[in-house]
Design goal:
Chain A: InterPro entries: 2Fe-2S_ferredoxin-like_sf, 2Fe-2S_ferredoxin-type, 2Fe2S_fd_BS, 4Fe4S_Fe-S-bd, 4Fe4S_Fe_S_CS, Beta-grasp_dom_sf, Helical_ferredxn, SDH/FRD_Iron-Sulfur. The structure holds two protein chains of two kinds. By secondary structure, chain A is of the alpha+beta class. Chain A has eight helices and seven strands. By secondary structure, chain B is mostly helical. Classes of the chains: A alpha+beta, B mainly alpha. At the A-B interface, helix 6 and helix 8 of A face helix 1, helix 2, helix 4 and helix 8 of B. Bound molecules: protoporphyrin IX containing FE, iron/sulfur cluster and FE2/S2 (inorganic) cluster.
């Protein structure tokens, strides 16, 4: 198939960027979206032009490195990661707009690559449990009810890609933070830091310049891992509980 | 399971500070104040419908609003308590809305080149709808409580006649009906939204909450609009 690509090009964080138009021919329906971009980059390299910078790593939908807003949708038209999106989702002759994640907490570094270290700082402020290192604990020592295990797992699926922030009209990180809080707060292993985790992670999220939640629901629609919007409801509940409890001390 | 935790030596700020400084806390303030105003509006709308029983009933009801709570409370005290709570609610709600909106806009300064429709109409109009409601509240009080901008000749204690006066003008009807449609949209998203903010929503309860939000929005909008429509059609005069 032949495609017209309109790609955001930006030399570095300081210089203004713009959309540039490219033609690519010989694209197979079986290529992934990233392979399609690889093809474009090979052509650009042969012509002596600067290839388009974009993030990727595992290319199997589990690491959260790939990004891209494709025709206005984070990770494109299918509910999956960009690396798992295939060109059969497009038609011959299509024009495809490719833009970076947009949020002031995710500044553009180059072309389609944004700085997502704000997520790391949110995690550092509470997305962990305190457990002694050494040999693995006996698996049956701490029973976890099945519904809790399922709930934790559903939220643990978050790969930290940032599509939720990119899709949110307020550039809010509520879905990401809620997935982490919900995952750890429901488990006995997460209990010792249950209150400080949610208070600190929400405070860091605010401090990093992410927006607030207006429950528009765009995040949960964009999320490639299907983190439910109700995880945000749960984080609100955890936050209010922690605020009440820590106020008494 | 024994775990070695780092001892926190820093003290957490007060609950009020935590609430006001956090985007989640400020949203809680909006949810609580929004629900207070919503509760008031249900009572207000039901009271307004007394206009269909004629001037005697309606003016009697308006008078009762001033004597309610007696003899425990003095004349008009209960009314002033309600007014004070509502004033506090509307100010907290509007200030939180403004501050949160400013934060949200700052967090997403660059728009996408490729546009596509996002979120529902009610969700997208919360801010403009809120501004319409704020302007409406000011006009409404100056019109029917103080009489400052009233069209005809305003008389305290003559609520029925004053209402008929307002809805005998085209602009009175227009302002009122536009505001009530904005109110319906605001509540349709707002009620469900407040449930999520307060942690009361869940997958199982979602359909119920959305239904209640729709019913509340519809009943309030239609209930409030019934009065100007009745005046326009001559049912109330
Ligand atoms: C002064 C006029 C008002 C302004 C400026 C205003 C503005 C807003 C804004 C900007 C939001 C946030 C929307 C979002 O999350 O996207 C909101 C939410 C809300 N408003 Fe208002 N509003 C006003 C009056 C009212 C009234 C009269 C009611 C009573 C029914 C109300 C009830 C609510 C509720 C229940 C919410 C949801 C809170 C939440 O999401 O937790 N508002 N309002
Ligand atoms: S919640 Fe979903 S969209 Fe957001 S970072 Fe996690 S996986 Fe990505
Ligand atoms: S490259 Fe790892 S999820 Fe897409």
């Amino acid at each position: 198939m032949k495609l017209t690509l309109r790609v955001w090009r930006q030399k570095n964080a300081d210089e203004p960027g713009a959309m540039s138009t490219y033609q690519v021919d010989d694209i197979s329906q079986d290529m992934s979206f990233l392979e399609m971009l690889d093809t474009l980059n090979e052509e650009l390299t042969l012509k002596g032009e600067d290839p388009v910078a974009f993030d990727h790593d595992c290319r199997e939908g589990i690491c959260g490195a790939c990004s891209l807003v494709i025709n206005g949708d984070a990770h494109g038209p299918e509910r999956t990661t960009t690396c798992q999106l295939h060109m059969r989702s497009f038609s011959d002759g299509d024009t495809i707009d490719i833009e970076p994640w947009r949020a002031s907490a995710f500044p553009v570094i180059k072309d389609l690559v944004v700085d997502r270290t704000a997520f790391d700082r949110v995690i550092q402020s509470g997305g962990y449990i305190s457990a002694p290192t050494g040999t693995a604990p006996e698996a049956h020592a701490t029973p976890v009810p099945k519904p809790d295990a399922d709930y934790a797992f559903e939220n643990a699926e978050c790969i930290g890609c940032g599509a939720c922030v990119a899709a949110c009209p307020n550039g809010s990180a509520m879905l990401f933070t809620a997935a982490k809080v919900s995952h750890l707060n429901v488990l006995p292993q997460g209990a010792p830091e249950r209150e400080s985790r949610v208070l600190d992670m929400v405070a860091t999220m605010d401090a990093e310049g992410f927006g607030g939640c207006t429950l528009a629901g765009e995040c949960a629609t964009a999320c490639p891992k299907g983190i439910p919007l109700f995880s945000i409801t749960n984080m609100n509940k955890e936050w209010l509980r922690a605020t009440r409890k820590s106020g008494k001390r | 399971m024994l775990m070695a935790l780092a001892t926190r030596t820093d003290r957490r700020p007060s609950t009020i500070r935590t609430l006001w400084d956090s985007s989640v806390g400020k949203k809680t303030v909006m949810a609580v104040t929004g629900l207070i105003m919503l509760g008031y509006l249900v009572a207000h709308m039901a009271g307004n419908l007394k206009i269909f029983f004629g001037p005697g009933d309606f003016n009697g009801y308006a008078h009762w609003l001033r004597t309610m709570g007696e003899p425990v409370l003095h004349y008009e005290w209960a009314l002033w308590i309600v007014r004070f709570v509502l004033l506090a609610a509307v100010i907290l709600h509007a200030v939180s809305a403004a501050q949160l909106s400013r934060r949200d806009i700052k967090a997403r300064p660059v728009k996408y080149v490729h546009k596509r429709p996002r979120a529902s109409y009610a969700t997208r109009t919360m801010r403009w709808g809120g501004i319409i409601l704020a302007l409406f509240i000011v006009w409404h009080i100056l019109d029917l409580t103080t009489g400052t901008v009233h069209a005809g000749d305003f008389q305290h204690g003559q609520a029925y006649q004053n209402v008929v006066g307002t809805f005998s003008t085209w602009y009175g009807n227009t302002i009122y009906i536009v505001a009530m449609v904005a109110l319906g949209l605001h509540i349709q998203h707002g009620f469900w939204s407040a449930a999520q903010t307060l942690g009361a929503g869940s997958r199982n309860r979602d359909r119920l909450l959305k239904t209640v939000a729709n019913v509340l929005a519809l009943v309030l909008t239609l209930g409030f609009i019934a009065v100007p429509v009745a005046v326009m059609t001559g049912l109330v005069s």
